[in-house]
Amino acid sequence: MNLVIVESPAKAKTINKYLGSNYIVLASFGHVRDLPSKNGSVDTENNFNMVWEIDTASKKHIKEIADAAEDCEKIILATDPDREGEAIAWHVRHILEDKNLLKGKKVERVVFNEITKKAVVYGVENPRDLNIELVNAYLARRALDYLVGFNISPILWTKLPGSKSAGRVQSVALKIIVEREYEIELFKPEEFWTLNAVFKNSQNKEINSKLNIYDSKKVEKFSFKNKKAAENAVAEINKNEFKVKSIESKPFKRNPYAPFRTSTMQQDASRKLGFGASRTMQVAQRLYQGIDIEGETVGLITYMRTDGTDISLDAVADCRTFIKNEIGEKYLPSEARNYSGKKAKNAQEAHEAIRPTDITRTPNSLKSKLDKDQMRLYELIWNRTVSSQMESAEFERTAIDFTNQSSSMIFRANGSIQKFDGFLKLYQEVKDEDDKEKEDSDEDNILPEVVKDEILKIDKVLNEQHFTQPPPRYSEASLVKKLEELGIGRPSTYASIISVLSTRNYVEVLNKKFTPTDRGKLITSFLNQLFTRYVDYNFTAGLEESLDDITTGKADWIEVLAKFWKEFNQNVLEVKELRTRAILDMMNESLGEIIFDKDNEGKIKRSCECGGELSLKTGRFGAFIGCSKYPDCKFTRPMSRIKAAEQDYLAEPKEIGKTEDDKNIVLKKGRFGPYLQVGNDEKEMKNVSIPKGISLDDIDLDKARFLASLPKVLGQYPENSMDITLNNGRYGPYVKCDKKSATLEAPEDIFSIGLNKAITMIADAKPGRRSSNEIKLIGEHPEDKKPVKVMKGSYGPYIKYKTINATIPDDKDPESVTMEEALDLIEKRLEYDSTKKGKKIKKKTAKKRKPKKKADKNKDEEK
After folding, report:
1. Residue 404's pLDDT is what?
2. Distance, CA of 748 to CA of 216 (rounded, Å)
3. pLDDT tens profile 66-125
């Protein structure tokens, strides 16, 4: 009998079917042991020797594996084909060795990139040894994360109350978000004007053009800085006659994109499907592990944690055959496309790109087999893979220049038409809204016919005022893109990094964009000032390169750790000696421009009206600005100037206007934020909350009336003819029908959502309201079918089951908690509660006071 050890139970069942009765396939349920959260888990004085502890949730799984190993001749370690999978295999082997269960037994390591019978059988028939270099890279990474987190976090707890933790990569990701927020807060809009002309040809058809040359100089963004300059230019232009100087038509091609790797899949799923990184990886995991098709469990995609951009020769051949037979021979290029040179920065293991395991298994053929999320992601992966082997899309781009007699003024009109759709037949690009370099598309803009030297009449000249815009906040897609560009972290870790930032309340997600909280800003400033080197982008990326060098055998993992620890430990010792006030003074200086106002000369203004000095302070609920003359002066304001300005804006109630039935609408500041008060007297007065994320400057009379009219019936749901109601609640705007409700993705959608969109949202929703504090619904408890959820709490994420709240360990990604782990945490919480209750009862019984003697009682009375 042979024992096969994999990571997940779903994978175990599938592989067991493929291998037959001579194999027992058991799951480790992920990592089986880790470093305990206490001093000494990594011995920095003894070659970074690590003390490992079997996780409580893993003990029963390890026992099951150990019991089976006793009776097996061969043990096959078949965990995932990446660094983490190699580490799990290494841990399992060590545990079995410690139990003396490997004597006289053959131990093999096998990997497969997809869960199909062919791949599994091939993997088992072609075993290899454990890759010790991959294991060493894991050990180095785990030790680094422990040393950083375990040394910086306690300093945060004492120096900055309210802070939860700091992580090696997590802190750098937070810094990226915070620095973007500072760019926005310090941004000063600049005025500029653009000039466009509308010409008409001989058939009286309009041609829109843009001023390209003026006064014999190229027109730049700020060539016309104000209205007067623009109007003067318009007056000069109107004095001239224009003719067609040149007509240029050039063909150009757009080549298809490489198949997905982990990060590009996360970005595309965010842009096109609205999935967060965690949700994308969870759905991809289910597609990888397989679904039941005609009685057989089949993996639908290859391994979803990869930096590879190429696919196997067999998969390429299958794609080309499918394209030729099903899409059309004209869509098939003469040669297969190769993407092996397009590697991500710090690319790790050389896996294939993410692709379907069988190209002939089209999305349409799986509609009845997959749920909605699975279907949408599978279709995205299938389209991207097949389109990567298709012909390029062909366009013809036309540029027409119109010039005055002296050629001192030139207008240019651009247009292009699609001649052949090519790969665009399957895969359409969605441009990232955060891409500042994107230009207005002229695709499918067909220019009317003109003749060279033809004199055209200017129908009108348009001068438009613009203001420069601040850079946009990061979305999940753009943050993942930025992390990858900088070489920070690994694509497989991006989902957990983003999850930790949110659950620790270091960032808020508003309109699908990350906004740092005051706590997040404070931690970033703290680390920037006191651990500058360790949140530096180049240093972090360089450390990632060192870890990858360990993977390839170019670097020794102990030497990498020793070099890091020497300088880092000295930094920690120096910071521990600093007083909290000294640290806050340093942050007052570094954050001066951000948190304090400026006087007329541009100097930072820190004086309070009482004559004291304003300064950054920390309290039970985080950072704030307070006066040095406290308690005589009790002035305080939020750390964020934007929040402070909002408070000042609502220092006095603002009259908005009247409703259509003549009721007053007043904007006020309340204990829980700004709100609208609607009514003319106290008896009929109604308070209406304003959805979080909507700027108070945007609340005009129309929007105020709309909010005052809520709840609003949008129409009826077709299936049951029940009303679909739009309303704003505690967790933001939502639509509701019967027992189903769905939160609007963006708060401002409350003003524009229509019936069709609402029907779609209700159709996709599950019965019952979801709290905004809910991170993940794990599933139903096996005993009573009650929901088991991961929730976001003031002190970190926790498991909620009925009235039981079980804390999730700090080093555990809340998004990745399985039902097995959740049940174990619930059980531990129940044991803790019963032990605590028992101690209280015992204490009360032991301390029962004996009745005082009568004489003693009299003495007490005399006293």
Report:
1. 94
2. 45
3. 999 998 999 999 998 888 889 999 999 999 999 999 988 999 999 988 888 888 999 999
Other C-beta atoms within 10 Å of 700: how many?
Answer: 11
**Residue the block writes with tokens 């708060």:** 747
CA 774 – CA 815 distance, rounded (Å): 11
Q: Looking at residue 78, what is its pLDDT?
A: 93
Q: Check whether 621 has a pLDDT greater than 70.
A: no
Please tell me the distance from the alpha carbon of residue 611 to that of residue 614, in angstroms, as a whole number.
Answer: 9
Please indicate, yes or no, whether residues 13 and 112 belong to a single structural domain of this protein. yes
Number of compact structural domains in the chain: 7
Considering the domain architecture, whether residues 686 and 731 belong to the same structural domain is answered as: yes
Q: Are residues 428 and 490 in the same domain?
A: no
- Which residue type does 328 have? G
Q: Indicate whether 760 and 814 sit together in one domain.
A: no
Residue 798 and residue 801: Cα distance in Å, rounded? 10
Amino acid 443: pLDDT: 60
**Same domain (yes/no): 726, 661:** yes
For the chain, the 3-state helix, strand and coil shares in percent, each to the nearest 5, are: 40, 25, 35
- The total of other beta-carbon atoms located within 10 Å of residue 708's CB is 19
Q: Which residues pair with 411 in a beta bridge?
A: 211, 402
In this structure, is residue 135 part of a structural domain?
no
Of 165 and 486, the one with more pLDDT: 486
Please give the residue range of the domain that contains residue 281. Answer: 262-388
- Annotated active-site residue in 18, 138, 288, 303: 303
DSSP sequence for 175-189: HHHHHHHHHHHH---
CA 667 to the chain's CA centroid: 34
Helix (H, G, I), strand (E, B) or coil at 505: coil
- For the record, the structure tokens of 200 come out as 């008409």
84 neighbors 138 (Cβ within 8 angstroms): yes
Give the Cα separation of 11 and 82 in Å (integer).
Answer: 16
588, 575, 496: which is closest to 154 by C-alpha? 575
Residue-by-residue DSSP string for 208-262: EEEEEEETTEE--TTSS-SHHHHHHHHHHHTT--EEEEEEEEEEEEEPPPPPB-H
What's the rounded mean pLDDT across residues 579-598?
Answer: 82
The per-residue pLDDT for range 424-477, each reduced to its tens digit, is 999 987 766 555 444 455 665 778 888 999 998 889 999 999 999 999 999 988
pLDDT range class, residue 220, cuts 50, 70, 90: very high
Tokens coding 143: 């030790």
Annotated catalytic, 801? no
Count of CB atoms situated within 10 Å of the CB of 850: 5
| pTM for this prediction | 0.77
Q: Within a domain: residue 108?
A: yes
Q: How many CB atoms lie within 10 A of CB 335?
A: 7
In this structure, the answer to whether residues 245 and 298 fall within a common structural domain is: no
Angle between helices 117-125 and 9-19 (to 10 degrees): 80
The b-or-e profile of 421-456 (16+ CB within 10 A means b, else e) is ebbbbbbeeeebebeeeeeeebeeeebbebeeeeeb
